Amino acid sequence: MATIIDGKASADKILENIKQKVSELEKSRDRKPGLSVILVGEDSASSVYVKNKEKKANYVGFNSSVYKLPETTTKDELLALIEKLNKDDAVDGILLQLPLPKHLNPSDFLDKIDPKKDVDGFHPVNSGRLLNNEKPYAVPCTPKGIIRLLEEYNIQIEGKNAVVIGRSNIVGKPVSMLLLNKNATVTVAHSKTKNLSEITKKADILISATGHAGMVTADMVKKGAAVIDVGIIRGNDGKLRGDADFDTVKDIAGAITPVPGGVGPMTIAMLITNTLELYMLR
Ligand code: NAD
User: Fold this and answer.
1) Is the CB of 214 under 6 A from ligand 1?
2) Model pTM score
């Protein structure tokens, strides 16, 4: 049976360390790290995510603020808020919670966040730096958390076959780049990929980020592989599930992240880590 990768325990440890660091920094610096989160509209999943982010930011002692804007917010209004936060010296990290309401195009706004305050690492300057293997000001949180988990569990990346299912800008593409920059041989699969299981069966590290519950089955996994399950799907029974069919895949894999309690908590821990790193830059 696979080692269960305990993302919650790793995340708790990271948050504890940061809390300690913030209380020490308070003695030498005149202000705490500041995180500002912008939430536009009423998306219920987003509201839960934002609440969790705020809770963890407060826990470690950051100055956190959440800007809740109505669904009807105009492009100019949102741009004005981003501009105000860009200029605010008390703000180190700006996070624009996605998805936005349909009338607002994310790239119109993500491009306007100061790259040195771009705590999600989605600004083209930061994604370009990731592509060029130059240090971005911030690396996207979920991919960064995945690499941290692999490292923490001593799962070798260099020279290994890594297969990433999913090519989103938030998870699939940036995690592929991080793995490539760490010398893995990376294959990116997606909804148009043919013979997916032939590809996944060659993976020493299999990362799935599709949002289709249970689509990664035991017969798609190489014996002993590390399976990182990014998917979060709420079933009709109210329970959260991942992309992997956990109960059968765990008997084949060498290591696996559970859902919940795997990648999810690490994403928030990396948001907090990124905020602190951006604070230290200034
Ligand atoms: P997305 O919808 O933007 O991308 C999904 C990707 O999966 C696409 O690239 C698509 O080509 C691919 N795909 C879809 N069906 C496929 C199939 N049958 N075979 C192969 N590829 C297929 O999603 P996203 O934003 O990357 O999120 C993916 C999942 O990860 C969602 O469940 C989301 O909730 C979750 N997520 C979790 C965290 C976390 O912190 N754990 C963070 C971000 C996203």
Assistant:
1) no
2) 0.98
